[in-house]
Design a protein that fits this description.
This is Kazal-type serine peptidase inhibitor domain 1. The chain has 308 residues and is of the alpha+beta class. It is built from 6 helices and 15 strands. Strand 1 (75-77) and strand 2 form a beta hairpin. One 2-acetamido-2-deoxy-beta-D-glucopyranose (NAG) is lined by residues 161-163.
């Protein structure tokens, strides 16, 4: 449709305005019947905006167009089919109808889809959003894994001089990287403590736990220690937990999470401090403050960005 628009002589600008409206009017019912309740609200807003901009479609003089810059999703033609403008990014609102120009159009490799999302409250109308046409991870020439092509292209456009390209589909082979490391913990005898360790690697890593000074892999034969692993929470990650039930002073020490795959290994450690009730009392700490959850969160989120 934008192509037809462009071919019309300039003095038919009024006709060019009416034509898409007629087509929209014809197409809208088809669309509503074919799709589950798309709520033609945004279509209507699109028409209103077309009307408002109607007199705006002057004869096209490409040399007068402002060149859009920093378009992370590429460029698309504007409502008049004349000048380039930035396309919409993944997750941004878009026009389901290709002839509408209200929210704008999605960039390369993106499709405008109704957000049939799970968290719609009853009666809420799903909104059309730009969605990446592929959800396959890729390995970029910067050695980083991208969740899908749209993410990689965004980064490539943001930093053109980095010459970022796709090396191969699937994640980059990578030695283990500890995405979230265990935190130092203290507690009073008799309480339970848990250390966690979240690892990204491809091929997937195995995790083991050790205590400094002990030459065994935990839990060994110690019935008050248990070890658990689970895949996730992100793709190509595995998370391990070490739980010590009813801690005793002899459990004090440094615990180490070791992650390994064919390419290498990584480790992170944290200390456990065990106070007897007497010791706790003499510190004068009014209640058990939780130190063990505090500041490393910021570090974690930075590391997360490396992957997704
Ligand atoms: C990107 O490619 C250009 C041209 O091929 C080259 O001059 C430049 O050094 C490259 N930059 C990097 C970071 O490889
Ligand atoms: C001590 O352990 C208990 C239960 O295991 C927990 O609720 C509490 O937050 C812990 N205290 C500290 C300081 O970590
Ligand atoms: C803590 O110390 C206070 C006095 O300093 C004492 O009265 C109290 O019994 C102590 N509590 C414990 C659990 O030792």
């Amino acid at each position: 449709m934008p192509r037809e628009l462009r071919r019309l002589p300039a003095n038919h600008a009024a006709a060019a305005l009416v034509l898409p409206l007629l087509l929209l009017a014809v197409r809208a019912p088809l669309r509503t019947s074919a799709r589950p309740a798309p709520g033609p609200d945004y279509l209507r807003r699109g028409w209103l905006r077309l009307l408002a901009e109607g007199e705006g479609c002057a004869p096209c003089r490409p040399e007068e167009c402002a060149a859009p810059r920093g378009c992370l999703a590429g460029r698309v033609l504007d409502a008049c089919g004349c000048c380039w403008e930035c396309a919409n990014l993944e997750g941004q609102l878009c026009d389901l109808d290709p002839s509408a120009h209200f929210y704008g159009h999605c960039g390369e490799q993106l499709e405008c889809q109704l957000d049939s999302g799970s968290d719609l409250s009853p009666g809420e109308v799903p909104e059309p959003l730009c969605v990446c046409s592929s959800q396959r991870p890729l390995c970029g020439s910067d050695g980083r894994t991208y969740a899908q092509i749209c993410r990689l292209q965004e980064v490539a456009r943001a930093r053109p001089d980095a010459n970022l390209t796709v090396v191969h589909p699937g994640p980059c082979e990578s030695e283990p990287q500890i995405v979230s490391q265990p935190h130092d913990v203290w507690n009073v005898t008799g309480q339970d403590v848990i250390f966690g360790c979240e690892v990204f690697a491809y091929p997937m890593a195995s995790i083991e736990w050790r205590k400094d000074g002990l030459d065994i892999q935990l839990p060994g034969d110690d019935p008050h220690i248990s070890v658990q692993f689970r895949g996730g929470p992100q793709r190509f990650e595995v998370t391990g937990w070490l739980q010590i039930q009813a801690v005793r002073p002899s459990d004090e020490g440094t615990y180490r999470c070791l992650a390994r795959n064919a390419l290498g290994q990584a480790e992170a450690s944290a200390t456990l401090t065990v106070l007897t009730p007497d010791q706790l009392n003499s510190t004068g700490i009014p209640q058990l403050r939780s130190w063990n959850m505090i500041p490393e969160e910021e570090v974690d989120s930075e590391e997360n960005e490396d992957y997704y």
